[in-house]
Amino acid sequence: MSSRTSTVKPLLLRGVVYLAFAALLFYVFAPYLWLIFTALSTQANLQLRFPVQPTLDNIVEAFTGQTLRWTRNSFIIASSTTLLALAASVTGGYALSRGTFRGKTTLMYGIILTRVIPSTLIIVPVFGIMLWLGLLDTHVGLVLVYVGITTPFNLWIMKGAIDAVPVELEEAAQLDGASRLKILGTVVLPLIVPGIGAVGVLSFDAAWGGFIMPLVLLSSTDKYPVSVGLFTAFGLDENVDFPKLATMCLIYMLPVIILYFTVGAYFRKGLASIGAGDR
User: Quick one: 44 and 81 in the same domain?
Assistant: First the structure.
């Protein structure tokens, strides 16, 4: 009797653990299931239920009109931010890694300190600067703001990646007559691909998922990214079209998911390179 009881208790405990884990999984993935089911439905509400007659009409319709324009704006903003952030981070990270000057450590910690400050605290001065530069309600101004927000942390990633590259390789290239720019392009860049991948993912994700900055800096509806477009469509329409909004949400999160799965390995290696070296 005691042996049977001792066997039953672990089984019951394991069953409770599995049940709790299943409940947790359902809690985490239920919103995503609702998005998928609602996007494939013609009539839906806030209830989670499988569509009776699945259809792709909502997805086809989402790639036309205003939604397509917002998605294109998001791609333009995110891609431009990524390219400029990579250029600033690679060159700046190389200078911080290989350069020696007084106050370097203080400068490094000062750079990362600016990243700790929430971006909502600088909305007013950023608005004033964009107004002074005449860049309000422009994608150029928004891209420059995103580059400024993402660059501090990106510099730390690139510095760590470049610190891990042996200096002897650069010295050998210098002996062959290579310039500093050529060394950066032919020797250093191929060895810091993980760091570049991490910076690219972080910069793209920050610009693609940004909401507060475009909401404040952009006033024309046609220039909105899809993040602000979602908010506008949901907030201004009393009769919410749930299938349409769910479809827009799926389109909104799909590029980031694809980006992570394609360069996810480089992203993880790049983040690991932050503490790879400290000169």
Answer: no
Q: Which long-range contacts (CB under 8 A, 24 or more apart) does 259-265 make?
A: 259/201, 259/204, 259/205, 260/201, 263/197, 263/200, 263/201, 265/194, 265/197
102 and 133 belong to one structural domain: yes
Residue 277 lies in a domain: no
**Distance between start and end Cα atoms, the chain:** 67
In a shared domain, residues 74 and 171: yes
Q: Which pTM value belongs to this model?
A: 0.82
**Quick check: is 278 in a domain?**
no
Q: What are phi and psi of 44, to 5 degrees?
A: -150, 165
In CATH, what number is assigned to the domain containing residue 162? 1.10.3720.10
| Residues 144 and 17 occupy one common structural domain | no
Question: What is the count of structural domains for the chain?
Answer: 2
pLDDT tens track, the chain, 279 positions: 455 555 656 777 777 888 888 889 888 888 888 888 888 887 777 777 777 777 787 777 777 778 888 889 999 999 999 999 999 999 888 888 887 778 777 888 887 787 777 778 888 899 999 999 999 999 999 999 999 888 888 888 888 888 888 888 888 888 877 777 888 888 888 888 888 888 888 899 899 988 889 999 998 888 999 888 887 766 555 677 778 788 888 888 888 888 878 876 666 665 665 554 444
**Sign, CA torsion 252/257/260/262:** negative
SS (H, E, C) 72-94: HHHHHHHHHHHHHHHHHHHHHHH
Owning domain of residue 84: 62-271
Residue 240 lies in a domain: yes
Cβ neighbour number for residue 229 with a 10 Å cutoff? 21
